[in-house]
């Protein structure tokens, strides 16, 4: 069969939206012409003269729209030529409509025509067998071909969501473009949904049923009707025209139908090619027979059959060419991503179904181009289509040119921003790696390796599989059963772990092997769970053995004489190895395909042993717990029953294997803290009951001995913590061996306590200790502190000796700081364990007071340590002090623990002050930028930053739990902007929680923070040019950030923002200039900071604040004609809508005047001074009962009052009277009308004009509907008539008014 030829370059112009013809006419004007066949592949569709000329010249390019002829005319002529093949036309039989179907007809449709919705309703319901449905339609089609075909066309039209139908008169007299235009006019699009994308359960399966119907239709017609007069050409022509429509529903649905039709035709063409090849073989076999055996009649029948198959094949090829050039070439780059995805998905299926014709570069290029699509679904379809191709090794030869052209793009897609796309890209590259040897270079692979440590587990696992096939299984594509068994042998397993070590250590991509183990778990789980090989590698002695296997010889058991050590070199990669004598095999070194190679000897270095230990612990944890490491995201919520069964079995296996070996591992690495700490963590993943059930108590004794030795030998915090936790796991009273473990623990604590008592007496009696004695005492205290953290050591009474030690350190300063740090922690744990004992309801008053006395005494020691010269002691004292104050804070008695009230401790003012001072000196220091994180200094800076964040978090918790005064939060909030990168999240959370506790107090604290910063700057720089300093600009940024923290709830925060402005104005004028001086008050620049909060105000509140500012400024003398800059800036920020506030000649701010007619102006001028003295926050006209969001009022604010000068209470701000609401209701403006919200109809927009929304002389007051909002401080809920809404803040309304688009055109 001839290969189909694409004409994308010629036909792209036909779908240009800039064509001069109308879109609907252009929709069908281009599609038919683009279906003319090339000279090598004839289409069984006759053409008119112009098309014939083009065909004879071998040109298959598409004609532009509007050049003159419609392809449906040619199709109709073709149908007439094939009319002789049709069966005789019988009288139409009335078809019984399906139950529940509805007959939707266009105007003028006759009653005798078949209903348009029978097929559609049946496919939508998806309840009957699709083959039976198609057979039923075929029966009706054979009885009345015209009516049956119209029913099929109307099915596709109805599937687009169009309400109209195509009648027989329309089909006979109108061209396709006219039919589509007529249907477009009848397309009553109530919403943007159509059947393919409509929500709801009834449409959920429609697309699948629709595609299945098209597939079944072609399948049932492939042997008869497809070649015997079925007007498939007319259907293709209609679908081609619809696919070029600008109506999205037409274009999407018809493209899906055309592509599924093409897919079915491709399968038919493939079957025809198989029949044709079979027929050709039969013909050749019959012709090669001898003259006596040859059957001429059979040869003639085979030849006739071959001719018929060839005609059918050419006819199918013509249909496929028409669909490909008329639909696919235009729609694979459609603006709608769903359409592009359909095209790419289907062309991938064509290549897999009929690779002989479609798996060529002329078709592959469409997938390659679409790899750059901006939509994830399209890129995903491209990769999935390519996966189906690269998965077949027989097709890889035809993909070499495509791979070399688009390989770089495929490799770059590993870093795609969409994880699912990146995962598919890695899986595709894995197939290329397995089936196309040498296609991926080392540079390509090295760019993929780092992704194995990605946070997304699916992506990391995919790269882990790629890594496994590239480095650990280089011969995986030719493996056999014997090879599989060989790789699972101990030698192959050791080689695997050597390669794994080499990759992790030499790549230097990450510091934690747990993420590499997790990435390889899905593909190399059996190898990673080979704990026997892991432990044997860790426990083996020094042996010079090479584990690489050479051709012709085994290097693992050489006959080596002492001293015969030579150097071998891999000639390809120059990797060196030690060889202990012997003779290489005849083949020499094997070809090496890996970048990383195992070491030639089994001797592991210190780094390799540490890494292998971490790999062992990580694999044990993964098998026991079944979840990825911390920070790696997985979409799974839990394990399946089968996975839980495997997890339980693995836990038993690893426990049985490691229980005897763990003491040996601890004995070998007992002096190495880096290896001992992770080994001790293995107990966390054991099934400890096996010690009892399998009679392994002797191994428990060995473990306890090694555990005691490790604790006594080491002083590193990580080792001591791991040891104490391991001992805690074993000290479970439910275990039968608890008495043994408890006895061992008592022995260990007795040993350490006796040593501590002896060394403490030496310290207290002697005035000088050498370094060894100091180290010994500090190490003993660290061990006891670690044990005290996990175990109750109260009966050893360590509080008193430690307290004496700390008291001497505070009084004399002669105790080394190495001793003070663990002693502080030890006393802290002692207090907590004592609290645990007295928390029961049976505690006596004496016990509570004794504990309270110990806690207070320790707090005094910590307070003294805050002024120590050693910063470590200061930070440790601060951490312990903040924790204790929080534990013994007011919340201790919450939850029915009133009997603990004697233990509640509130710090004194001096202690609170010292805590705040410590925070300023140790946390809010000059921020420094962190480096890349690779150098030692960068790591040190990161650790220091974490410690400072810990200190700040402890202080903030004291604030939020009421231990410290909330006003102390100003010391934290004022650094919000400057230290945003370091502590922004902590401060923001503290601010949010503080606002939830007390909104009003939190707002005052924000203002207090700004006051403190302003006062500090004023004292340093003076009042001159203050607002031009960089520090002042930073303060403005901080004020802006504070303003944004109020959020979008403008009404909820209204009283708070007004209060903040009011107190800010008072502060700015709190200090007056000397008498007779014309200079501005020193705090006046603070008004510029207040201006950052002005956008949070309602417009009517801005007017009130302007009046209040004017009243306050009357007490300040000012040179005439010279307004102060801060006053002008602040007034401009309070100007409604536009910055039009001006200062009067005396420098006082002038409230904005509105154009007021008649009595309204006189009413405003008659307001008495007594009314101005009391500024009412709720001085807002009452809300009309039913008001539209577009209502504007020209009436003035009737009762504008001003705030009292000095004694105005906050209650006066929040409890005011509604003003003259009747005037607002009696508005006489012609643009003002009241319409009930529940009666608003679609004509509302026709009564609203843009001019009515943008009047310049209208004040910015508007009716507010949030009538149920509770005002802070009022003690009552406001009625619907007490709230106002700015017109520009109509988003506060909860009622939505729907206005049709057409109604707005009148404006």
From TrEMBL:
Entry's Gene Ontology molecular function annotations: chromatin binding
Subcellular location as annotated: Chromosome; Nucleus; Chromosome, Centromere
Domain SCD: 328-413
Keywords, in A-Z order: Cell cycle, Cell division, Chromosome, Chromosome partition, Meiosis, Nucleus, Phosphoprotein
Composition bias type Low complexity, residue spans: 1-22, 34-45
Pfam families in alphabetical order: HEAT_SCC3-SA, SCD, STAG
Bias type Polar residues, positions: 1168-1192, 1225-1238, 1270-1281
GO BP term, pick one: establishment of meiotic sister chromatid cohesion
Compositionally biased spans, kind Basic residues: 77-88
Entry function: Component of cohesin complex, a complex required for the cohesion of sister chromatids after DNA replication. The cohesin complex apparently forms a large proteinaceous ring within which sister chromatids can be trapped. At anaphase, the complex is cleaved and dissociates from chromatin, allowing sister chromatids to segregate.
Name assigned to this protein: Cohesin subunit SA
């Amino acid at each position: 069969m001839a290969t189909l030829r694409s004409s994308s370059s010629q036909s792209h112009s036909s779908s240009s939206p800039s064509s001069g013809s109308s879109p609907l006419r252009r929709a069908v004007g281009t599609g038919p012409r683009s279906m003319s066949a090339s000279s090598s592949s004839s289409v069984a569709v006759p053409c008119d003269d112009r098309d014939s000329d083009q065909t004879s010249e071998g040109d298959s390019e598409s004609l532009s729209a509007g050049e003159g002829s419609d392809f449906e005319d040619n199709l109709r002529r073709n149908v007439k030529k094939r009319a002789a093949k049709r069966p005789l036309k019988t009288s139409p039989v009335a078809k019984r409509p399906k139950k529940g179907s509805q007959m939707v007809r266009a105007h003028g449709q006759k009653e005798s025509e078949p209903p348009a919705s029978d097929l559609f309703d049946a496919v939508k319901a998806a309840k009957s067998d699709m083959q039976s449905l198609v057979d039923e339609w075929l029966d009706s089609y054979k009885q009345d071909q015209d009516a049956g075909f119209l029913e099929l066309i109307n099915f596709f039209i109805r599937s687009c969501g169009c309400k109209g139908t195509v009648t027989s008169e329309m089909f006979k007299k109108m061209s396709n473009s006219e039919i589509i235009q007529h249907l477009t006019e009848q397309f009553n699009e109530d919403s943007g949904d159509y059947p393919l994308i409509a929500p709801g359960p009834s449409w959920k399966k429609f697309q699948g049923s629709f595609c299945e119907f098209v597939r079944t239709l072609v399948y049932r017609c492939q042997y008869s009707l497809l070649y015997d007069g079925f007007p498939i050409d007319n259907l293709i022509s209609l679908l081609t025209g619809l696919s070029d429509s600008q109506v999205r529903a037409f274009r999407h649905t018809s493209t899906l139908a055309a592509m599924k039709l093409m897919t079915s035709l491709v399968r038919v063409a493939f079957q025809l090619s198989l029949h044709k090849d079979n027929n050709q073989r039969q013909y050749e076999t019959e012709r090669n027979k001898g003259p006596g055996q040859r059957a001429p009649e059979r040869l003639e029948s085979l030849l006739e059959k071959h001719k018929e198959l060839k005609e059918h094949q050419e006819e199918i090829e013509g249909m496929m060419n028409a669909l490909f050039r008329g639909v696919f070439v235009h729609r694979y780059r459609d603006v709608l991503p769903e359409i592009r995805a359909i095209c790419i998905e289907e062309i991938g299926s064509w290549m897999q179904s009929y690779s002989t014709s479609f798996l060529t570069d002329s078709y592959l290029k469409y997938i390659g181009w679409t790899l750059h699509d901006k939509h994830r679904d399209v890129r995903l379809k491209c990769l999935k289509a390519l996966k189906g191709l690269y998965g077949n090794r027989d097709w890889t030869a035809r993909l070499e040119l495509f791979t070399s052209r688009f390989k770089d793009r495929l490799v770059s897609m590993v870093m795609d921003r969409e994880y699912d796309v990146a995962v598919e890209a890695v899986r595709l590259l894995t197939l290329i790696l397995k089936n196309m040897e040498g296609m991926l270079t080392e540079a390509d692979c090295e760019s993929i390796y780092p992704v194995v440590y990605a946070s997304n587990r699916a992506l990391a696992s995919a790269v882990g599989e790629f890594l496994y096939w590239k480095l650990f299984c280089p011969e995986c594509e030719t493996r056999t059963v014997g090879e599989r068994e060989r790789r699972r042998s101990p030698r192959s397993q050791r080689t695997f772990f050597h390669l794994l070590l080499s990759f992790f250590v030499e790549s230097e991509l990450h510091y934690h092997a747990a993420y590499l183990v997790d990435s390889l778990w899905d593909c190399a789980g059996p190898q990673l769970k080979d704990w026997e090989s892991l432990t044997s590698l860790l426990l083996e002695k020094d042996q010079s053995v090479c584990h690489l296997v050479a051709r012709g010889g085994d290097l693992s058991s050489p006959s080596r004489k002492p001293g015969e050590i030579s150097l071998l070199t891999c000639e390809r990669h120059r990797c060196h190895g030690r060889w202990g004598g012997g003779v290489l095999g005849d083949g020499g070194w094997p070809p090496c395909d890996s970048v990383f190679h195992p070491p030639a000897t089994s001797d592991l270095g210190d780094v390799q042993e540490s890494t292998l230990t971490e790999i062992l612990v990580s694999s044990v944890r993964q098998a026991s717990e079944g979840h990825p490491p911390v920070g790696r995201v997985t979409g799974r919520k839990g394990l399946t029953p089968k996975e839980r069964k495997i997890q339980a079995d693995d836990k038993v296996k690893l426990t049985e294997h490691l229980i005897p070996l763990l003491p040996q591992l601890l004995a070998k690495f007992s002096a190495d803290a880096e290896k001992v700490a992770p080994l001790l963590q293995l107990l966390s993943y054991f099934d400890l009951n096996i010690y009892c059930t399998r009679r392994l108590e002797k191994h428990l004794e060995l473990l306890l001995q090694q555990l005691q030795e490790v604790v006594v030998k080491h002083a590193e915090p990580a080792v001591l913590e791991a040891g104490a936790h391991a001992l805690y796991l074993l000290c479970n009273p439910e275990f039968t061996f608890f008495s043994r473990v408890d006895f061992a623990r008592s022995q260990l604590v007795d040993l350490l306590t006796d040593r501590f008592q002896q060394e403490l007496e030496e310290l207290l009696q002697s005035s000088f200790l050498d370094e060894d004695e100091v180290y010994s005492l500090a190490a003993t205290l660290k061990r006891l502190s670690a044990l005290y953290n996990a175990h109750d050591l109260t009966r050893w009474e360590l509080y008193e000796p430690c307290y004496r030690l700390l008291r001497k350190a505070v009084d004399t300063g002669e105790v080394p700081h190495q001793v003070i740090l663990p002693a502080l922690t030890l006393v802290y744990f002692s207090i907590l364990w004592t609290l645990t004992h007295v928390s029961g309801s049976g505690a006596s008053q004496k016990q509570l007071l004794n504990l309270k006395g110990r806690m207070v005494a320790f707090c005094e020691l910590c307070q003294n340590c805050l002024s120590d010269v050693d910063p470590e002691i200061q930070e440790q004292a601060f951490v312990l002090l903040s924790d204790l104050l929080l534990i013994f804070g007011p919340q201790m008695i919450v939850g029915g623990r009133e009997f603990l009230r004697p233990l509640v401790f509130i710090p004194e003012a001096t202690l609170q002050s010292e805590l705040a001072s410590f925070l300023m000196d140790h946390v809010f220091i000059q921020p420094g930028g962190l480096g890349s994180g690779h150098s030692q200094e960068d790591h040190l800076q990161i650790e220091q930053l974490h410690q400072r964040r810990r200190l700040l978090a402890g202080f903030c918790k004291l604030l939020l739990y009421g231990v410290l005064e909330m006003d102390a939060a100003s010391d934290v909030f004022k650094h919000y902007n400057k230290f945003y990168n370091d502590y922004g999240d902590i401060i923001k959370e503290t601010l949010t929680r503080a606002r939830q506790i007390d909104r009003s107090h939190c707002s005052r604290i924000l203002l207090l923070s700004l006051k403190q910063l302003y006062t500090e700057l004023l004292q340093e720089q003076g009042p001159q040019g203050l607002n031009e300093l960089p520090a002042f600009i930073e303060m403005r940024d901080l004020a802006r950030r504070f303003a944004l923290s109020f959020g979008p709830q403008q009404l909820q925060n209204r009283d708070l923002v007004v209060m903040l402005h009011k107190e800010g104005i008072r502060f700015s004028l709190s200090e007056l200039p000397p008498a007779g001086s014309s200079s501005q008050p020193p705090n006046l620049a603070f008004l510029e900071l207040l201006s950052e909060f002005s956008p949070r105000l309602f417009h009517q509140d801005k007017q009130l604040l302007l009046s209040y500012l004017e009243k306050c400024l009357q007490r300040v003398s000012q040179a005439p004609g010279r307004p102060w800059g801060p006053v002008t800036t602040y007034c401009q920020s309070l100007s409604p809508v536009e910055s039009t506030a001006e200062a009067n000649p005396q420098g006082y701010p002038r409230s904005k005047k509105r154009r007021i007619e008649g009595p309204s102006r006189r009413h405003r001028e008659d307001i008495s001074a007594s009314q101005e003295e009391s500024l009412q926050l709720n001085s807002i006209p009452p809300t009309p009962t039913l008001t539209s969001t577009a209502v504007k009022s020209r009436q003035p604010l009737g009762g504008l009052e001003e705030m009292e000068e000095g004694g105005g209470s906050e209650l006066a701000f929040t409890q005011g009277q509604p003003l003259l609401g009747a005037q607002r209701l009696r508005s006489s403006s012609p643009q003002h009308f009241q319409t009930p919200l529940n009666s608003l109809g679609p004509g509302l927009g026709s009564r609203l004009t843009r001019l009515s929304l943008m009047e310049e002389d209208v004040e910015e007051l508007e009716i507010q509907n949030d009538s149920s909002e509770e005002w802070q401080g009022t003690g009552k809920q406001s009625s619907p008539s007490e709230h106002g809404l700015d017109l520009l803040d109509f988003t506060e309304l909860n009622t939505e008014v729907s206005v049709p688009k057409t109604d707005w055109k009148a404006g």
